[in-house]
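Subgroup meeting minutes
Present: P.N., E.W., G.H.
Scribe: E.W.

1. P.N. recapped why we're keeping a running log of single-chain structure predictions: easier to compare across weeks, and new members can see raw inputs and outputs side by side.
2. G.H. added today's entry (129 aa).
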Amino acid sequence: MRLLGVDLGDKRTGLASGDSDTGVVFPLTTLHIPMGPSLAEAIIDAAQTHEADLLVIGLPLNMDGTEGPRAKLTRTFGDDLSAACALPVVYQDERLTTFEAEHRTRGERVPQGADAHAAAVLLEEHLQG
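Output recorded in log:
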């Protein structure tokens, strides 16, 4: 199964691609589009381009594991996105994914952007179950 990981942000959203059969995950790009219909269209285009079967969207939980307003906003966006592209969406805890992505890149400037690497971390954690 092909996966598209989405590290959703207000101004930047990272995308990563993965395959559940091989376990291979790689960062794709960082979209510099504010949250809204244009971002949804760009994510749908990426899902089609990479032949995704499933969208894995990072869920910003509080450190105690509870959901706050940002998590609710993410779920609403994800549910709307799923309805628009007819792909299932799963939510993956994204706590510390940006920290892990920055650690991996060690502050280097990477072409895909740190947000794309955070999306890759999301997919890896999803695949690890």
